[in-house]
Protein: UPF0434 protein SAMN04488568_10641
Amino acid sequence: MSDASTASTDRMLDPKLLEILVCPVTRGPLVYDREAQELVSEGAGLAYPIRDGIPIMLPEEARQLEQV
Structure:
């Protein structure tokens, strides 16, 4: 079995990139959810997907977080 499928889903984002990325809606900080491969903006209530190691920072592509 190839590790290619797990490598794409288990890819770690560059820590320097995480330092400079902010939520495009609130300009607030993002939290990296490695398991879900998302960048979470608690302020906006959005989770931005990471596809093939690339953060998709478009609000229309983000998943709405569930209210607690």
User: Anything to note?
Assistant: The domain at 4-64 is CATH 2.20.25.10 (N-terminal domain of TfIIb). Confidence is low (pLDDT under 50) at residues 1-9.
